Amino acid sequence: MRDAMSRFPYLRQDFTASIVVFLVAVPLCVGVAVASGVPAELGLVTGIVGGIVTGLLPGSSLQVSGPAAGLTVLVFEAVSEFGLPALGVIVLVAGLLQLVMGALKLGRWFRAISVSVVEGMLAGIGLVIIAGQLYAAAGLEAPASGIDKILGLPGAAVDALGSTAALASLAIGAGTVAVVVLWKKLPKAAQTVPGALAAVILATLATLAFSLPVATVEVHGLLGAIQPPGLDAFGELASPALIGTILAFTLIASAESLFSAAAVDRLHDGPRTQYDKELMAQGAGNAVCGVLGALPMTAVIVRSSANVGAGARTKASRVLHGVWLLLFAALLPSALALIPLPALAGILVHAGWKLIPFRSVVALWRSHRGEALILVVTAVSIVAVNMFEGVLIGLALAVIKTAWEASHVKLEIVDKGAGPVQAYLSGNATFLRLPRILDSLEALPQDRPVELDLSGLHHLDHACRTALEDWAERHSRVGTDPVKVTEPPKAAGRAEVAEPPKVTAV
C-alpha cells in the first residue's frame, strides 16, 4: 500500500474526483446520445474512450473528454442526412485530421479564433438544443431545422396542452430542470451528488411511483450498439456534403476542446496545456470512436471543472472515470431503460441554457460592439441556416472586422490659403479605406497645386497606390503644377506654417 502511495501520491484525491466526474458524466453521455438520434450506449462508449484513451495521452492533464452538447445538433443533422453507419466514417476522418493538425503544430493557432465566434457558436447551439429538447420534453417530434424548431414552439405548446401524456412528460422535464437549478442551493453535503444525476434519479423514481405514461431510454446493449463502419460507408467520402460535415466536425470539436483547455488552465495551478499534444490526443480519441461507430468527442468544460473542483491532481482521475463508465455500461445496462426521456431533455435544456453567454453579450455591447455583433450574427446564422455555414459566417465577419480595423488611416489637408495644398496620409492605406481617401482628395481645388505626403504610411497596398497615381495624373491635367508625391518610407519634414492652417481629418 505504501509502495502504491509513493508511486501515486495523489491517488486518494484522484480516486474521489473520478467518482464525481463519473456521476456527472453518466446522465450527460446518455442525454447527448439520445438527443443526437443514436443509441444511448454510444454516448457511454465515447465517454469511455474519452476517459481511457484520451485520458492516458499527454496534452491537458485535468480536462475530461466525452460526448459534448455542443456537437449534438451537428451529429443529429449528419445522422439524419447520411445515416448512422456514416457517422463512424465522419468521426474517424475528423480524428485523423486532428492528428495531422496536431503533428503539424496547428493546435496553438486555434487560440487565434475570435472568442466572439466561439461564444456565438455555443450560443447558437444552445438555442437549437433548447428548442429541440422542449419538443422532446413533451414527447413530440421536433422539426428538422433550427428556425422551424423555434417557430413551431407555439403550435407545440397548444398540442401539449391538449394531451395528458404530453403534460405528464412536460412535468417530468420541468421538474428535472428545477432540481438541477435548485440543487446548488442545498447544503454542501447534499451537493456531493451531482445535481444532474440527482434530477435523473428523482425523475425515474417519480415515473415508476406514479406509473406515468412517459417514454424511457431504449436499451440495445453495449456490444449491440457498437457498429463499426463498413466499406459501403467509406464510399460516402466521395460526397462533397459529407466532406463539408467532416470539416465542420474537425473545426468545431478542435476549437471547443482547445478553448476548454484554456478555461481549465485558469482553474488550477498545475501543468499548463500543451495545445498541439492535446489536439493529437483528441484526434486519437475521435479516431477510436469512429472505428467503434460512436459519437465524436470534445473536451467538456462541465466535466473538467467538476474534476478540478473535486480535487483531482493528475490524469489518473479522468482515466478512472472512464473505467467506471465501462463497468457501468457492462454491468448495469438495464438501468438505462428506466430513465425517462423527458428527464434527459431537461438536463440538455439546462446545458443549452448554460451555453448562451448572456453576460458576455452585455459586456461586449458596452465595450466592443463590433465583437458583440459578431457573436449575435454567428448565433442567429447557426439557428437560421446550419452549424457549419453559421460558423463560417462568423469567421468571415471576424476577419472583415479585423481587416477594417487594421486599415486605419488618417488624411490631413493643410490649406494656408495660398500656395500648394498639402495632404498628409498616415497609418495603413488599404482598399477598404480607399473610397473615403479618394472622396477627400477629389474635393480639393482643381486650380491649386497639391503636395501629397505618404511618408507617414506604414502600409500602402497595390489598390491604393494605383488609385492615388491615377488621381494625381487626373489632377495634373487641368493646367496646374503636377502633384508632388513624397513616397514612403522617405521622410518628409513638414514646413513651418506662418498662419494657422485649415485642417480637415478623415
TrEMBL record:
Transmembrane segments: 15-35, 42-62, 82-104, 116-140, 160-183, 195-217, 237-264, 323-353, 373-400
Entry keyword set: Membrane, Transmembrane, Transmembrane helix
Chain ranges of the SLC26A/SulP transporter domain: 11-378
Protein name per its UniProtKB record: SulP family inorganic anion transporter
Membrane topology summary: Multi-pass membrane protein
Cellular compartment(s): Membrane
Region Disordered: start-end pairs: 479-506
Chief place where the protein resides: membrane
Listed InterPro entries: SLC26A/SulP_dom (IPR011547), SLC26A/SulP_fam (IPR001902)
Origin: domain of life: Bacteria
